[in-house]
Amino acid sequence: MTKYLFGCLCSLLLVLSSGLHAQGSVEDRPPVTMTFFLNNAFIVQSPGKVIDLGGLLIRDGLIQAVGKDLKAPADAKVMEADSMYIYAGFIDGLSNLGVPKPKQESGGNTRGGGRIYNPSYEQAGIHTANNVAGLLAPTEKDIADMRAIGFTAAHVVPREGMLPGQGAVILLGGDDAAKMIVRERSSLFAQFEGADGGAYPSTDMAIMSKFRELYQQARQHQSHQANYAKNPRGMSRPAQNDVLAAFGPSIEGERPIFFAVDGIKEMHRAITLSKELGFPLALADVTMAQKAIAPLKASGASLFLTMDLPEAKKAEKKDEEETDPEKKKLEESRAAAMQLHEEQAAMLAKEGIAFGFSTLSAKSKDVRENLARMIKAGLTADQALAALTTEPARMLGVSNIMGTVEKGKIANLIVTDQPYFEEGANVRYVFVDGMPSEYEVKKKKKKSAGDPAAKVMAAGTWALEIDVPMEQMSTPTLTITDDNGSLTGKIVSGMGANDISDMSLEGNNLTFSYSVDGGGQTVTVTFDLTIDGDTLEGTMSAGNFGSFDVEGDRESGPKRQ
Q1: Could you give the CA distance from residue 250 to residue 257 in angstroms, rounded to a whole number?
Q2: Ramachandran assignment for 470, one of left (phi > 0), alpha (psi -120 to 50 degrees), beta (any other)
Q3: How far is Cα 171 from Cα 432, in angstroms, rounded to an integer?
Q4: Taking the chain (561 residues) in consecutive chunks of 10 residues, what is each chunk's mean pLDDT?
Q5: Based on the domain organization, do 289 and 409 belong to the same domain?
Q6: Using H for helix, E for strand and C for coil, what is the string for 371-410?
Q7: What is the tally of structural domains in the chain?
Q8: Is 467 a domain residue?
Q9: How far apart are CA 378 and CA 347, in angstroms?
């Protein structure tokens, strides 16, 4: 594992606060070839269909060959894949990946502080003419974060309002937004989000009423345009209305309207609108869907379950629960609700309802853990893989180019060192449109056991190595002064210095901590080190930024005799 030498820990915290989103990723370099060969791998072409120890050839962004007994062509870069696992890249069914959050404007949409009963489209949160393709920022951190855990494509939509705009299926790689687009204007996005500043509609029922009104107006607008195109004589020329025109493909049944729903009530309301008005429906960020099996089956809606789960609560001591009946009852109620969230996917699969996943309200750092919780609750690995690959590809209309590992499809692939859904599996490569990102495996270093009876010297100047992937800075030094058993220290680099007054040595175990400003927030940095002669090792933790391995050598001061 490559060691990255850091200058000043204050600078480290600034780096961390700006985002270790590529943690584990090897630095991107322009490829010398667009032909890649992986061999002797377990190739999971689709759920339940596996080629044992086969090969895969990628050329110019496409899978050119997959199977047994393949040979690497002379122009191919051969990538280590022995006994690894290759999957189709995962597809996010609905998200805001790559779409920056709009800047919040000061003030509201009120006029004189009162209610607005006849708002403009903008005030009402109606932005159907918005095309997410024009909003994409390829450098947004969330794209790299999701790619690092295996997501290679996503259906992305604009933010904010009851009708934020039109979505697109994009690739999660590249630096040119236009080249990331796979399927533009693939959906119209809606949600039960009321207007701000006292504008109508502000409640779910008002949103439903407004949606019906808009849809009927869009039908009339479309009919007027069609009739005028056939015979304009005697007819007024139809006005241009991009907001109403955006409903056209859905009225024709050619494009689904995606509703993000929060809970059973919103799910039923979206289904009601679809049934009344006749548009194809997709439900996203769905929770508790097992409580609406019959309506879901009858609706024919595409379904994307949320990948966000309530945070798992750590178990408390049994004696505390037993002595407080009310607390025990509350905890049992919470546990039952948690179980419903975790079992949702498994229950739907048992009922034969197909689904994908949505990360609209989920954080990338929680996705793998939440998948593991769903699998523990009864979802099989094949069912999870289908929900991440073949099902979203089918529902988003892109199964002809992605979702399985087959010749001719886009080379969107994940390569892992163990089966993806097994604990401890590491992502080693992710290919997006044939372009690889390589990820190093960060091995957990076992900290040497402290010996309270050991006699060591801490004083001196130490050169430290702090293992944080993807960052490389100048070498910091830790200087420790021993004044009759009272230890003080300083970390120094070309970037500055941090004094350390809270330092303790018990046997060979050295600990110290101090606070620094990390990008506008105060973070406590804690070191827990074991000294062995003129070397030391251990860990450094930096608040919510995580823990990192530390090694060091004594450069000056008392040496081991």
Answers
A1: 7
A2: left
A3: 7
A4: 38 44 45 87 97 96 96 94 96 96 59 67 95 94 96 97 97 94 97 90 95 96 93 90 96 96 96 97 96 95 96 60 72 84 96 97 95 96 98 97 98 97 95 94 62 87 76 70 89 76 88 74 82 90 73 77 41
A5: no
A6: HHHHHHCCCCHHHHHHHHCHHHHHHCCCCCCCCCCCCCCE
A7: 3
A8: yes
A9: 8
Q: What is the pLDDT of residue 196?
A: 86
In our burial notation (b when 16+ CB lie closer than 10 A, e otherwise), range 244-264 reads bbbbbbbbeeebbbbbbbbee
Query: In this structure, which long-range contacts are made by residues 482-488, counting pairs with CB atoms below 8 Å and at least 24 apart in sequence?
Result: 482/457, 482/458, 487/458, 487/459, 487/512
What is the spatial distance between Cα 276 and Cα 405, in angstroms, rounded to a whole number?
40
Residue 386 domain-assigned?
A: yes
How far apart are alpha carbons 217 and 420 in whole angstroms? 49
Inter-residue contact 153 to 169 (CB < 8 Å): yes
Q: Are residues 294 and 365 in the same domain?
A: yes
Burial class (CB in 10 A: 0-12, 13-18, 19+), 2: exposed
Q: Are residues 389 and 420 in the same domain?
A: no
d(C-alpha 321, C-alpha 301), whole Å? 43
113 within some domain: no
What CATH number should be reported for the domain holding residue 63?
2.30.40.10
Angle between helices 364-376 and 141-148 (to 10 degrees): 30
Regarding whether 348 and 284 lie in a shared domain, the answer is yes
CB distance 392 to 304 below 8 Å: yes
* Domain limit, last residue, from 382, 411, 441: 441
Helical residues (DSSP H) of 247-358, grouped into ranges = 248-251, 264-277, 293-299, 318-322, 325-350
> Half-sphere exposure (CA, 13 Å, Cβ side) for 38?
30
Helix (H/G/I), strand (E/B), else coil: 189: strand
Measured at the CA of 90, the angle between CA 88 and CA 92, to 5 degrees, comes to: 150
- pTM score: 0.75
Residue 3 covered by a domain? no
Three-state DSSP class for 258? strand
Nearest to 540 by CA among 530, 550, 531, 532: 550
CB 193 within 8 A of CB 254: no
Amino acid at 320: E
Same domain for 277 and 379, yes or no, is: yes
Contact 413, 407 (CB under 8 A): no
In this structure, are 277 and 398 located in the same domain?
yes
Of 402, 426, 459, which one is at a domain's C-terminal end?
402
Domain with 32 in it: 24-89+403-441
466 and 437 co-located in one domain: no
